[in-house]
Amino acid sequence: MKKRVCIDINSILPIISRGYLTGVGRTTYELVTALDKMKEEIPFDIVLYSQNTKNISSKNLGFSFESKHISLPYRESTNRILSFFSIREYFAKADLWHCPHNSDWVGRLSKTIFTIHDLIILNCKNEFPWKEVEKVKKELPPLLHQCKAIITCSESSKNDLIRFFDIDPDKIHVTYWGVRHDLFKPLTDKEDIKSYLWKKYNINKPYFFSVSCGYGRKNTLQLLEAYLQLLKNNPDNDLVVIWNNYGEDVIQLLEKSKDRIHILNNVRDEDLVRLYSAATSLFFPSSYEGFGLPILESMACGIPVVTCDNSSLREVGGEVAIYTPSPDVSDLKKVMENFENGNYNVASLSNKGIERASTFTWKKCARETLDIYKKQMI
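^ that's the sequence the OP posted. Answer follows.
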């Protein structure tokens, strides 16, 4: 009888209601998709576990793996009770349980793999409520010390796990995320893309682009301020930012931009590819990332990347990305000016970016994940 690995896929179910995913949900979806394409090669059974009262499961997503569903709310209080009796693990008949969304209350830690994407809450603790930080510091270490293995997406995140929680390095497996090369790739119909963006988003000029925006470590306010300073020189480029939640302070900055800053939200992947492909460059001035998926996606589309030299960002950007000394307004403005003045070899950056992005694939990530499963079955 084949061994069974159960993957908790609750983080990817929102794609059914809203049509797109971000962060943990996105990487989990791509991993399961890649595993599904390799199903015939897998020497054990994979089961996809879901839990909600709407009976939405992996069956709604078209995966060929076996689906197991419990009609209960997916929340901490419920999962605590289920873990006490190991109900989910017994229900799925799992020999190995994979929680790919950082952590959860599970019944059999000795047969559980956690994927820890990052430790942002500890590295940037001033951005989180004190109670949340203290809860992580109290509850996460016992889970990680008792679990079977840990997967993480960068050497930087592995070092954080060792530094904050004194985890055995041999227990932590670094598996880089991939990029969907069938979707994120250079598009040749530039004029059609420009026409599309003009009609849908009212973007009719060249533009600098930024995604995964927010406050704190994302440094998006600094990016907007840098562009507003650049705006005094009447630049060729607008600034386009994908930002789902922003406050009154951003609205005030927009009023100063003379309609040269465009903020978009709820962008689906099909439009995201177009926005990457038509951009002058991607600006990703984060102070901390567990990985940095937008860097890969931008490079795969042939667009130069501007980012910071910290945490995992150089692991992803390599020697291809343009690194600012800091995410300060003055440094970001200088890079924008360099693009405006033609000081970068954009064609070379584009070609090198495409080449580097090609080495990051979800198939490779899936194979490495399967190897980890196999080792933990022993």
